[in-house]
Structure formats: structure tokens, C-alpha cells
Amino acid sequence: MTKAMEILNGLTLEEKASLTSGKDCWRTVDIEGKLASIMMSDGPHGLRKEENGSTVPATCFPSSATIANSWDEDLIYRIGEALGEECLANDVQVILGPGVNIKRSPLCGRNFEYFSEDPLLATRMASSHIRGVQSKGVGACIKHFAANNQETDRFSVNAVIDERTLREIYLSSFEEAVKVAKPWMIMSAYNKLNGDYCSENKYLLTDILRDEWGYEGVVVSDWGAANEPVDGVKAGLDIRMPGPVPSANNAIVEAVKSGELSMEELDKNVLRIIEIVEKGIASKIADYKADMSAHNELAMKAAEESAVLLKNNKSVLPLAKTDKIALIGAFAEEIRYQGGGSSCVNATEISDLLKAFDDKNIDYTYAKGFRTEDDSINDDLTAEALAVADKADKIVMCIGLPFRMESEGFDRWTMSLPSNQIELFNKLSALKKPIVIVLFQGSPVEMEWSKNADSILAMYTGGQAVAKACVNLLFGDANPSGKLSETWALKLENNPTALSFPEKGTATYSEGVYVGYRYYDKKKLNVMYPFGYGLSYTTFEYSDLKLSAIDISESDTLEVSFEVKNTGSVAGKEVCELYVEPTYPSVSRPVKELKGFKKIYLEPGEEKTVTITLNKRSFAYYDVESHDWQVDTTVYNILVGSSSRNLPLTASVKVNSSRTSKTFFTTDSRVYELNANPIAKEALSKLLTEDLKLDITALSIDLPLSKLVGFSGGILSVDMLDRFVASLNEKIK
Ligand code: BGC
After folding, report:
1. DSSP string for 636-705
2. In angstroms, what is the span from residue 100 Cα to ligand 1's centroid?
3. DSSP labels for 194-232?
4. 143 CA closest ligand 1 atom index
5. 702 catalytic residue (yes or no)
6. How far is the centre of ligand 1, averaged over its atoms, from the C-alpha of 223 (Å)?
7. What tens digit of pLDDT does each residue of 176-206 get?
8. Which residues' Cβ are closer than 6 Å to ligand 1?
9. What is the whole-number distance in angstroms between the Cα of residue 222 and the centre of ligand 1?
């Protein structure tokens, strides 16, 4: 018998029930002489441990939206390790992150905390994050399961999502991370999904998570997300947080006594809690010291790797250290390095751009230019900025989304930057000097006004060392290599959710699988900056795409290889992206979807072979009839390149489906559906021409079989049709 089983057997009903809610805001319940308690703390991009009314100092790494732009799985693994070490040093056993919710709308207030609009990129980054944390004997908690895509009405909004969209988009960002990285915990979301609260959603927490994905860890509710205690336990929720909640524990005791809840059901949940507590306790290391200066350095590297160079006309960047620079914009001193809410870390050190410029001995003059508290224009600040810019060779303008505009708890109300920043830009650009925009924000902003900017560098919410990283990038001591993990639309109105987001009460995901680039591609819309886009100070050339086969069965893997060469004069990193485009799909599908990526480092002139392996899932869609992933037998184009809208290499592979489950017909089946199956087509044709003497024209291909009864002039009865369908199904068995 395992130790956990022994502990379970030694617990009374009341003790078992007490474990299903927290001991306090952050800890699990301990039972004297039987079980210790473990501590959870936020996450995701730094440790936020509350202690004595404040938050312990910890390294604030770039937030998930930022780090996703690095597309660097090894880098986020190392951040995970560092997070794990800081947890060990602070006696925290589980860190609440990463968050993998999909960016359905650019306005979601918490987008800075999530990775991407694309589930593959999100789940890969999450897997590495989780593996890194857990390699240190600390648990990660993937969140918020599931479909928590808006902050408005987040405690009760009902996300209404069709099955295919749920599987392909909103669950996919969790799926691989849960299966491969096996997080110790998963956090159930506040909202409802298709009518049931996620924290009491058996379909989500048991049928999919445990029975299908094989998850063996603990499900914890988001803080305050749990409702009916017995329903929660039955659905698969293990711990409701925060605690204690004596009334919930009593309800569970009463339910077991009355037979509403079986002891076996409760035991399953309690055993999982005991196992995680034992694991957490076994991994504690007394007096552990984390190397905080190494972590600060890692945070800086991560910020460098994640910044995205959006524009660089006339190679204005990198700047020369001898340039006389006007550093303009309040964001240079009020550095925006993380978002608001439960993820807000008490950073160990923070520097602003002024200090980072000083540290590099740059000749610059600073002017604040605008206020961040509101959008109002301050004439004195404007005049000062123009005077400073007038005397400089080049202008570096630091703008972005102030803290007040991006946080957990509310959604953004606009995709534009505060108007006072844009106004100032227009005045500065009228001076006709080289002008570089540095952006600090956690999500995309409308940028059509920026035509006169020569260069744009998006730092996103880059963590505590973002200032140094930014200066390294501006002056060429580091080469930008980030690529956007989300599309920057030209304007909010182009986003498929623009008419309704955010909805209260019920949020209907009517755009289906067409989220992010899947939508803009399908609609052939121009975008400001596409998904996967980002420039470098060097150039890369792609060539020689090879496939390991051109005709495969869906159970085979396919090796895709190609060459990438650094054709510029400085070393750099390139994110190579692979998309799959199905031809003639049997259901409506996105034009193409990301199915693989790799980030590589190349010296000038160096060339490397990149290999990416595809499998069945790379070609499949979620089929709602078989409730499974299915592949169409058809040709798929393999597209490779540097962004979702720059894919110079293409090749094709035919994939043969080995789908064994037959489609069975009913009286509701349509004529065209029968015509798609040779056996059914023959049987129907015989029925129509020989028995019913009916001529079914192209106009009637949508006709349900049941309607034939009415059109047959009394020849075909309901019984006869039933017999026809039954015998047809026999034949195709
Ligand atoms: C957030 C979670 C967080 C929890 C604990 C909730 O409001 O949604 O992400 O982990 O609080 O702070």
C-alpha cells in the first residue's frame, strides 16, 4: 500500500472533507499527526508570495505575452527553473501558473498574462515553463481551465462554444502541456462553459481532463470560483480556494452520510490531495538560497529575446553610441514592466531607461512629454519635448499602455494608445528627424498613426530588467529576435469579436475556430503586423525544403527539413515557422495553422538545417460526429518561413486517413451525404429510379431522406424508409 493510501485510510470522514477547502488564503489544510500543509502562491512570471501583509521580493520575469514572443522553449524552461528555485527559497510548494487562455480578443485585460492566440505556441511554451518549475521539485499550476477569455463578468459569464472550437482552440492550449508536462495542479476557471461552472463541470474536469487526457494531479478552483461543494467534488474539483469554508466541508460530510456522495468519490479526490502534499513536503530544502543576481540576468536575457522589432526603415536601428539622442516619453522613467492584478510581482530590482542610458554612457536629454495618469495634453510638457528633440540628432520616443489600462479584473475598452501620446508623436515627427518608437505594453495597440516612425521596437511587459535589455537592443549590443505571438490588427473593428466583446451573461463564440490569424487569413484582411512577424538587424534566407515522404498514412510521422542562412553581417537568431494548409478539406478549416517552429542561432554567413517532425495531429481537425480527431485523405501544403505572411518555401504531402469508424446513415441524412459513399449512392439511386421513379435534381441534394416519403406519391412509407436505412447501414458495416 502506498504511503498516501495509508494516510487516507487513517482519516475520518470529517478530516477528509476538511481537505477539500484551503486552510487559509494560500495553504492546504494540515491534520495533526497525519498530514502536513503545502503553500501555493502566484505566478506566473514571478513569485508573488504574500507574507505579513506584503509580498516577498522576487524576480519579475517578462510576462507570458512577452516571453511567448521569444518562441524559445529552452529559455522559458530556464525561467521555470528559476521560478522553482525562488519557490524553494521561500517555502512555496506550488506556483500558480502558467496561464494558457487563448487571446480571443485583443481587449482581454489579462492578455499580458497569456501566451498567444495560437494553441500550439501556447501549449509548447506552457510545457517548457511547467517542466522547468517541476524539475526543481516544485509544482506548477496551469490555469484557467477553461475558456476564461475575458475579465468582464468573469465570475459568472457563460462561454458558449461549439465542440470543435472548444477542442481545436480553447482546450488545445492546455492539452499537450497537461499530457506531456504533467503539471501538479490545474486551476478551474471562474466562468461557466456551455452552461456549467468550470469548477463544477464534469465534462471538463473528469471526462476530458482525467478520462481522456489521463491527468492524475490536483484540480484547484480559482480563488472564489467554487460554488456547490458536493457538485464540485462529484465533477472532479479537489480543492476549493481560498479557505477555510466550514459550511462546504459540512455539506460534504452530510452528503456522504446521506449517500448523495459516495466515500469512494470523496476518497479519489482526497487521495490526490494527499499525494501532492507528500510530494511538496518531500521536495522542501531547508535554507535554500536562490541566485537572485543570476535570475536578474536571466530576466534581462529573456527581455532581449522577446522584444519584437516591428519596423526598421533605413536601418535607423541600431543607434550609434555617439548619436545625440532626445529620449522622450514618460515610459522612459515610469517603466512599464508587468501588468496589474494577482500576477504583480514585488521585483527585486528595477531600473528605468534613464539609468540604463547613463550606464551605457549615452549622450541624451530626457523630456517626459506627456502624462500617463490620463489622456490630457500638457502644453508645458509638449513644449519641453519639442525643444529637446530640436537639439538632438535622433529621437527615441517611449510610449505604451499605462498600468491603469491593462490589468486582471477588467478588459481594455479601446485598442488605441492614449491620444496624448499620439498627438506628441505627430508633433515630433514633423521635425523630420529619425524617430524610433519604443513600446511598452502587454497587448497589441492600433498603430496606423505610426507611418512616419522609422523604427518601432515593442518591448511588451518585459520584466524587471527590461530597461537594460531595451538599451542593449537599441544600440546593437543585442539583436532583436522576437516574433509576435499574436496578430496586430489594423484596427479593433477588424477583429471577429469586435461587435460583441465583452458580453455579459452569455458570451457566444460565434467566430468558431477563426481566432487570430485563422480569421484574418480566411477573410484575406490586411493586418498591421502578422502573427509570427518580427525583424532582425540581420537577414535570413530559407531554401531547400525537403519532406521525408510525399504520400503517407495518418499514423506515420513526416520529417520536414530546410536550410536557413544568415545573409547579413551580424549574428542573430531566427524563429523558423511551419504551417500546414489542407487542400479541399471536408469541413470549413483555417487557411493554414502553425504546426511547428524552431529558434536557431546563426553567425554571419552560417547556414543550418532545421528539422521539424509532424504527426497525425498536425493534419487533423476535431470531428464532432466521432468526437475524435480525424484526418481527411487529401493533399496538405507544408509552408515554411519567417512569419505567417511570409512563407517562401512550400511542398505538398498526401496524407491517407485510416479512419475506421463508418458513417452511419439516419432518416435525417441528406442526399449529398449518401452520394459521397459509393455503396449508399448506389442504393439510393436504385431506390429513387427503380422504386420511386423520382428524379432528384441538383436542387435537392440537401434533401433529408425523411422528405422522400412526402415526395413519393404514397409509394414510400416511413416504415419502408426505416428498413431502407437499416439495410444500408448493414451493408456499409
Ligand atoms: C486569479 C488567479 C490567481 C488567484 C490567486 C485569481 O483572482 O484569477 O489567476 O492565481 O486569484 O491569486
Report:
1. EEEEEESBTTB--EEEEEEEE----SPPPP-TT-BHHHHHTSHHHHHHHHHIIIIIS-----GGGTT-BG
2. 13
3. TTEEGGG-HIIIIIIIIIIT---SEEEE-TT----HHHH
4. 9
5. no
6. 6
7. 999 999 999 999 999 999 999 999 999 999 9
8. 42, 96, 143, 222-223, 342
9. 6
